[in-house]
Amino acid sequence: MAERLQKVMAQAGVASRRASEKLITDGRVTVNGKTITELGTKVEPHDKIEVNGEPVEGNEKKVYFLLNKPREVVTTASDDKDRATVLDILKDVPQRVYPVGRLDYDTTGVLLLTNDGDLANQLMHPKYNIDKVYVAKVKGIPSNDDLKALRLGVTVHTVEKNRHKTYHAAPAKAEIVAVDRAKNTAIVRLTIHEGRYHQVKEMMKAVNHPVLKLTRERYGLLDVTDLAPGEYRELTYDEVQALKQGKQYRRSSGRL
């Protein structure tokens, strides 16, 4: 049965469906020796698919890993600045996994990596409202009005890939965890459902409290309270099934 090329790539663990689409439009995918750049191209089970000259295997075992991402590591497969990547940390994993979403270079915390393209696509789709809980150390002490603005949804003005963008962030759960009046800083916990570029940093900047340090405390039902920075573990069967069913819970420490 014919399937869309990007879906087959995602199911084989090459990348998420969105990232697979970019690989196709960038001309890095061939089917039976022919370069494919048109999205929506369908392939048959017997077709030979290659990405950057490497064959795509359709029967790879689905695996799921939880990483406590450390600072100064990028969440990409490779980096043009030769910085360490999350895949360097999981170099002993035989399957070709990729991160579900991204964390900034200087952001720590919960990161899921898998070769299950369908689950990755589900988790990243806004309609599933997956909780992403961040704890941010910010400059200044947010007022009640600042917190109210975050809860209602702030307008963000940002620059992404040298282009100015403006959007209205969806309402977030926002609370102050701790304050340090001597240093004029605060620890703020934000729960969001979107995954925009530098979103938490931009939201806090919009209320005039720039982020000094940031960690993702929870993603859906996953946290890393049992993992040191740079450590990872495979998810249990029950955790995978709960993710697929969209289950979530709150277990927050407030530590940064």
TrEMBL record:
Gene3D superfamilies for this protein: Alpha-L RNA-binding motif, Pseudouridine synthase I, catalytic domain, N-terminal subdomain, RNA-binding S4 domain
Record-linked SUPFAM superfamilies: Alpha-L RNA-binding motif (SSF55174), Pseudouridine synthase (SSF55120)
Domain RNA-binding S4 as annotated: residue spans: 3-71
EC class: isomerase
SMART domains, A to Z: S4
Chain segments annotated as transmembrane: none
Domain of life: Bacteria
The keyword Isomerase is assigned to this record: yes
Keywords for this protein: Isomerase, RNA-binding
EC nos: 5.4.99.-
Molecular-function GO terms, alphabetical: RNA binding; rRNA pseudouridine synthase activity
PANTHER family: PSEUDOURIDINE SYNTHASE FAMILY PROTEIN-RELATED, RNA-BINDING S4 DOMAIN-CONTAINING PROTEIN
Family statement drawn from the similarity comment of this UniProt entry: Belongs to the pseudouridine synthase RsuA family.
Name of this protein: Pseudouridine synthase
Native organism: Weissella minor
